[in-house]
Amino acid sequence: MTRSFCLIGMGLGIMILLSVCGCQEKDNSAMIRQTKLVAEENIQLKQQLSDCQKEVEQQKRLVEKATVDNAEIAKQTGDNNIKLLQIVAQSGKQVEELTAENARLKARIQELEAKLSGTTAP
């Protein structure tokens, strides 16, 4: 009977060891699977980060180009405004000159009409 208990005890011990080893294998394979999943996710995240960094660099280049373009447009606009102001000033001078000439011509016409009416009246 003692021998039976020993055999039963040894059998139970072996079964427990086998089940524990089997659980460790399952746990190890689950850990390996989880590690692989985490590694894959890290690779994807690194790729997404790289893509985002490239996009940020592209956006920075676009902003720099837009800033340069804006400065050029502002300079051209300023130059055009100066030209327009010069044209307006020249036009104002021409209007003043023409107005003065018009006044002189009106006075000359009145003078000539006065002479003409003075010579025809006798």
Derived structural class: mainly alpha
Please write the string of helix (H) and strand (E) elements. H
Mean pLDDT, to the nearest integer, reads 84
Question: Rg to the nearest angstrom?
Answer: 52 Å
Count the beta strands: 0
Shape: rod-shaped
Strand content: under 5%
Main sheet properties = none
Number of helices: 1
Q: Determine the N-to-C terminus distance.
A: 176 Å
Low-confidence stretches: none
What does this structure look like?
The structure is a single chain. Helix content is 98%, strand content 0%. The chain is mainly α.
Per-chain topology:
Blueprint: H1 2-120
Keywords:
122 residues; 98% helix; mainly alpha; rod-shaped; single chain
How would you sum up this structure in a few lines?
By secondary structure, this protein is mainly α. It is built from 1 helix and no strands.
